[in-house]
Structures are given as structure tokens and as C-alpha cells.
Write a structure and sequence with these properties.
A: about 160 residues; alpha/beta; B: about 110 residues; two-stranded parallel ribbon
Amino acid sequence: MSNTQPVQYMDRTRRYYEAQGFDRAYQWAQCDDVPFTSLAKPLSESRLVVITTGARYDRQQSDPRYVDSGDIQDLPERLFADDLAWDKDATHMEDLNSYLPIKPLQTLVTTGVLGDLAPRFHCLPTEYSQRRTREADAPEVLKRCREDGADVALLVPL
Amino acid sequence: MGSAIDIVERCGVPRFYFVDFPLGNPCGKPYDDAMQFDIVNAALRLFTSAEAPRTVEVDPHHWGSDAWRQRYMAIKPEDRERMLRLGEERRRERQHLREIGQVREG
């Protein structure tokens, strides 16, 4: 009988890197106090911004990663994340909307479910350093979201 | 929205729409416009339906097979040597990048 439970990615990753001889396991982020805000206005009047962990260019493992933004009116055919861990055997990233869902979101704007979309989507780099994400990248993404007048953010990590 | 529920629940987020698919396509199977629309539409409903942080909703779609669950990052006994060599290479590369200063500042 095949397993149908959600994959335990932290365990799987720990074992994988142990097998590579890394002796210090990665510490995943943990927030004891999780923020929550109710919407200030209906979704049908809200502007939504999309944030992805993909990149607009084919990064190498060794490339430094920075916050980047793309224009939703001039979408690339696809994003890239060959330098990240995801299931490259089971699937692929050739269909943009399977991980950056601009087309379904535009349909939801057209049908009045959603107010509109922010003019840019943002590429948030995943970093080994949580401090860098917390103190540099996340504030930069927030600044860009505010510049674009976004009311709600949809984070879509790969 | 995403597919690594253990990592997201450990981190803690206001709202999480869980799509139990292989990592890479959290918005639906490639080229399946109808499924992608259903998933994104349902994910957006969480913006208004959630009343407290750490609210999780599970998407009902199925990837079509479950073989990927055991295959992902699986380590076969015959891979042990290769894995250790891979680790050595990574450590050497990391050390080299550190030496030439090609690491992000801050």
C-alpha cells in the first residue's frame, strides 16, 4: 500500500544532508507569536500582490540571491529555481501558472472576486541565514508591496 | 499557499492553504487551467474565512499518484558513497566561495 501522508520535509532533508556528511542540521524558522490581521476591506476591493521563491533568471547554486521584482503586464514565460530543493523528478516549472498564478488571479479580478493585482510580483530569495531574510529581504519586499498599494499578499513558495 | 506543510506549520503563518502536491506546483498541475483556478480561488477565500493565526485549509485535489512521496530525497543504501562524495564537493565549493569572497554581505 502506498503512503498517502504529507511528506515530512524537515525529516527528509535532515537525513539527506546527514548522508552527505553534514553534521549540523539546519534549523528551520519558528515564530512563537504569529501575526494575524483581518482584511481592512472586502477582497473584492483589495489589491493583491504575489510573492514567489522562484527567480527571473536561471541562478547557479553559488550566485548570491537578492530580492527582485517583475512586471505582471510583461510576464516571463517561466521562472527558475534549479538552485532550490523541489521535486525535480515528479514535476517541472515550465507552466508559470502552476507556481505564479497570475492568470487565475486575473480571472478572479475579471469576475469581481478580487479587486485588482499589484503591478509587480516579487521574488523573495530563500536564504540559509534567517537573519538576512528577517532583517534585509522581508523588509525590502514589504517596502515594494507598500509602494504598489497592495492590501493583501499571497506567498507562494515553491 | 504551498506544499511543505511541516515547514510552514513550524514557522507559523496567519493563513495556509495546503496543496499536497510534489514541491514545485503549489497552484495546481502544470497546464491544468481549471484545477489552478479552483485552487487559487479556494486559497483566496481563506483571506476572509480565517479568524485566527495558523488557520490551515487542505485542498482536496489529488496529484494522480503517490509514488513521489517516498521517492523525494530518498537515500538508497547503494547511494551512500555517492552522497558522501557529493557532500565533500559541496563543502569544498562553499569553502572556495568563502575564500574568494563571493558571498553576500550582511
